[in-house]
Every structure is written in C-alpha cells, then in structure tokens.
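Supplementary notes (optional reading)

For those who missed the lab, this is the record we used. Protein: Ribulose-phosphate 3-epimerase. Length: 216 residues.
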Amino acid sequence: MKIKRIAPSMLSADFGNLQRDIEMINKSDADWFHVDVMDGRFVPNISFGFPVLKTIKKHAEKFIDVHLMIVEPEKYVEEFIAQGADLVSVHYEACIHLHRTISFIKDKGAQAGVVLNPSTSVAMLEDIISDVDLVLLMSVNPGFGGQKFIENTYKKITQTKELIEKYNSKALIEIDGGVNTKNASLLFEAGADVLVAGNAVFSSPTPEETIRQLKY
C-alpha cells in the first residue's frame, strides 16, 4: 500500500496559539509535525530553536520531524534529539562530513534525513542513499513560507525513486515547499511519501479538512 503522510509545518502556525494548533494536528489526519529550524546564515531567515521544540514535544502526540536549515548542524543535532526530535534532517549543502553527521544522528537514537536544495542534483545522494531514512527534496528555495512550487521537483522525485530502488534503500521521499490541495495527489503519484504543508494548512479556514484533502 502506498505510504501517504502529511506533515504540517509549524513555521506557519499561530505562535500566539501554539498549543491550540498542536492539538488541532493531534486530532487531524496528519501524521507528523514538521519543525523548521533556521539560523539566518544558511538561509536568510531565523526561526525557532530548542525552547519551541520542547513545547511542541510536550503537547504533540505524533512523530516530530525536524529540518535543520543551519550551518554546522552537527553541533546541534544531539540537543534537538534530546528535546524531542524523532527524525533530524540536515542539508547536503551544509554538511562537510555528511556521512559522519548521519551516523551521529542514528547513534543518538533518531532517524536521519538528508535535504537537497532545488538546484542540487539528486546524483549527489548516491554515496549516502543507503544510510538515510529520508530524502527531503526542497520544492522552493528554503528560508520563507508561501513560495511558489518549483515544477522541476517532479523530475527529482523520479530520479530519487530510481536511486532508492537501485541501492535497495528504505528511504522515504519528503517534499517541502508550495504543497497544496492542487498538487498533493500529483506528488504522491510521482513517488513522494511525505508532504510538508504549512501555508496551505494554517491559512485555511478549515485546517483539519485541508489536511484530509491533502492526504486523500
């Protein structure tokens, strides 16, 4: 059976009503919480860190997927795992010693993912695909929510799927950026397993219904 998971992005949640939004996701058909961490250096924006993740963990009843858009992520992965991350994804472009960082994440008890920016070739995954639990393909340039989906992502999904099959990898494919109710089914059909949706969910007047539409 096809895996179809929805991971609402907490970057788009209402931080004045964070517990309310967490409880909405708990009740919904969503599968994961997606937590974007930005440092203002790797990407031109700053988001939350350990205290917010700790709050999410306190109330969340589902899997927590942490996406580190930061330089030198290896310095911080252990603390993010300690604060509640079930999966930590790091950027290929940010890791000088990617294999070491992926191994470290797993040694600390979390699942490990690798992220590719839109302009990074899927071919760069060849030497790491067997070691990761997830490949996150950015379908916008990272740093800000609400951006337009990059259509070349469909080709990259196909290429990633071929690489996973070639090396008999167990990695899931996650898509982040510009996901909405119009393209969700197409992304799943192309081979995606997990869709991150921020603006589409939290700007909706009926977010739980939007999550259901994204998934089914």
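If you only remember one thing from this example: The chain has one domain: 5-215.
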